[in-house]
Amino acid sequence: MRVESDVDPLALRDARIRMGLTQHELARLIDVAGGERISRWELGSSALRPEMLHRLAQALNVDATAPSYDPTSTANSGAGHEAASL
To answer: What are the residue ranges in the chain where pLDDT is below 70?
Structure first.
């Protein structure tokens, strides 16, 4: 079952992979229990709370202030870093 979210599950997965992280590594970085939660977010079966969205944005080096999650966007890139929006 897919839930409504401002986060594109596939874009979340792409951003994690781009950073070279496994689901478990990302979970540890944002202080959540196990990669299963990351998996649910990437499948769209669980919605992100605002504080988790902020933690993800920091861990994945993306902008959490944009209206929707699009880690493939390079509109905010600068100084050689790929800064996407969340």
So the answer is: 1-5, 64-86
Strands (E), the chain: 62-63, 84-85
Cβ–Cβ < 8 Å for 51, 64: no
Cα–Cα separations (whole angstroms), residue 12 to 72, 79: 9, 23
**Residues paired with residue 69 on neighbouring β-strands, in sequence order:** 7
Class of domain 9-72: mainly alpha
Residue listed under structure tokens 């993306």: 62
For the chain, what are the domain ranges? 9-72
Nearest to 62 by CA among 30, 34, 32: 30
Would you state the pLDDT for residue 80?
38
